[in-house]
Amino acid sequence: MATRVGFIGLGNIGKPMAINIAKAGFDLMVYDIREEPLKELAALGVKVARSAKEIGEYGEIIELVVGDDAQVEAVMLGEGGVLEGVKPGSTIAIHSTVHPKTVKKVADRARTKGVGIIDAQISGGEKGAENKTLCYMVGGDQDLFDRCRPVFATSGVNIFHVGELGTGAIAKLAHNIIVYINMLAASEGMRLAEKAGLDLKTLQDIVHAGAGQSRIADNWLQQWRFKDYRTGLQGLIQLIYKDLRLALEVGHDLELSLPGAALAQQLIARTLEIEG
Fold it and tell me: Which architecture, in CATH terms, is 4-164?
């Protein structure tokens, strides 16, 4: 019998992840507050839940791809949430980028019900999910990681077990510091070149061949220059602010100064608006 998987959160990343799980032959049930993605998944033969609690009742492995800490807590711990219906022996994977304290808070509550939690952070975005090239950074018990790995492999090629519960979240925040500071650097370099009259495609090729090479710089003109992305710009800025706020909070908890992350948080919104 195929493993029963419950999946909550059918946004830009969650929806293609869920489609991959269904196409891989898992017995999938999904939930989202929006009807449109539910109808799309139902058309593929996927079961549709009407509450997070119903997902808890159904899934042996439950995956969560929602926006932030407050949404994770509401979906997991709130009235009609997953933990109201979940069965002992189930495993819940939190994919959302959240504070490690949130992961541990949910895990403490889940433990009283005999349920395991892992923080399985993901990187690669919508295209990574569609192309099945996501990178997973997973914290938690090794046995739970091994249990979930076949499901993760439907959307990812690089799946890392990084340590105890909460370390997946820390790995994702550390990764995002590098991404967002890199975005700021690429934007400033490109703006300087453009203002001086250089051809930006030529500069992109130069950076790719030089020591400044990065995936952000390689894709800047195609993906990160926002003249054609005005409608999604505010959402991106809010996401960046949220991720960097979490990183700075973790740094504070560790008594670690992160001035580059703080500067990126202050400047990146203005920089991206200029690009737009």
Answer: 3-Layer(aba) Sandwich (3.40)
Residue type, 238: Q
Residue 267's pLDDT is: 84
Residue 232 has a pLDDT of 57
Whether 172 sits among the annotated catalytic residues: the reply is: yes
Looking at per-residue confidence, does 233 or 182 come out higher?
Answer: 182
Reported as a single tens digit per residue, the pLDDT across 126-136 is: 999 999 999 99
Rounded to whole angstroms, the Cα distance separating 276 from 259 reads 26
Distances in Å between the Cα of 148 and the Cα atoms of 131, 143, 242 are 20, 9, 27
**Catalytic option among 104, 132, 172, 201:** 172
Domain boundaries, the chain: 4-164, 171-275
Q: Are 21 and 150 in contact (CB under 8 A)?
A: no
For domain 171-275, the CATH class is mainly alpha
Q: Find, among 168, 47, 177, the residue nearest to 119 by Cα.
A: 168
Q: Please give the pLDDT value at position 223.
A: 72
